[in-house]
Design brief:
Length: about 260
């Protein structure tokens, strides 16, 4: 019953506000929903025993506007996280004829596997919500206001290789070195930036593991992005700058 209620509250609010005004009040609303989730987990949603470890085999990877390749049959979904951080760019001069060049990114990763398997509608809203809250402090804190559990970090290593470290949660998935293998523009409805203002949501991606990966990490999808795009040109930009973003990352590992 509770799970049904949760879904209907969310569907109703999504229908009532197709262009959502991201406000702290909405964050509090989300916190309340989160509290309901915890309650449902304790009480057993729909009278059933709420799964202790969430069954990711039920989770459905969101489909991109331009289809990304399906997960390789030798992979299984091992984790879903919300990433919150910045995309960095450089501008060689403050000129309208020069476009910003991607330099790298840094983000903190939070475990949302249970939402992915049980409450996908809530998960879909989460990057847009997370973008409205201050960047998490470096290091070990959980993400507020909903206390999402720290799972790891995303950064570019000294050689500029996108790296994901997933060793801060109970299930340590290792450190992966990745390269981009496919992309899609974000949907037109994606949240463009903080308070809905900004230059748009970064592309959805598939990245594949390369040499230097420990553990069994094999691929990661970046989907439901919010913010992160730079201005179209360098006219008003400093030499190096950061643009805030949030997203979901879906991690796949090699089957044993
Ligand atoms: C990105 O910029 C942030 C500061 O906003 C910095 O802490 C981080 O090291 C930079 N990372 C890369 C890969 O440029
Ligand atoms: C994410 O959280 C779930 C539920 O608490 C847990 O079962 C799972 O092991 C966590 N994932 C990782 C990678 O730690
Ligand atoms: C996708 O990748 C191609 C090739 O690297 C690039 O030209 C294009 O701009 C990318 N598209 C998006 C939406 O990032």
């Amino acid at each position: 019953m509770k799970a049904t209620l949760l879904s209907s509250i969310f569907i109703a609010s999504a229908l009532a506000a197709p262009t959502i005004n991201w406000t702290p009040a909405l964050g509090e609303f989300y916190s309340a929903v989160d509290a309901h989730i915890r309650e449902a987990r304790q009480n057993g949603a729909n009278g059933a025993v709420y799964p202790q470890s969430c069954d990711l085999s039920k989770a459905q990877l969101p489909s991109a506007p331009t289809a990304l390749p399906a997960p390789d049959p030798s992979w299984y979904l091992s984790s879903v996280v919300v990433g919150r951080g910045v995309q960095n760019y450089t501008c060689s001069s403050a000129s309208p004829n020069i476009k910003p060049v991607a330099l790298g990114a840094v983000a903190t990763l939070y475990n949302v596997s249970c939402l992915a398997s049980n409450y996908p509608n809530i998960l879909e809203m989460l990057p847009g919500l997370a973008l409205q809250y201050p960047l998490p402090p470096d290091g070990g804190a959980n993400l507020q206001p909903s206390n999402l559990l720290l799972e790891g970090h995303h950064y570019f290593d000294a050689a500029g290789v996108p790296t994901f470290e997933l060793n801060s949660g109970p299930n340590k998935l290792g450190v992966g070195k990745f390269k981009k293998t496919a992309n899609s523009t974000a949907p037109a409805t994606a949240i463009k930036g903080e308070m809905g203002l900004g230059n748009g949501a970064v592309a959805w991606l598939l990245l594949s593991a390369t040499t230097g990966t420990d553990g069994n990490l094999a691929g990661v999808y970046r989907v439901n992005t919010a913010g992160g795009n730079p201005p179209d040109n360098c006219q008003s930009s400093p030499a190096v700058f950061s643009v805030q973003y949030a997203t979901e990352y879906w991690f796949y590992s090699k089957k044993p």
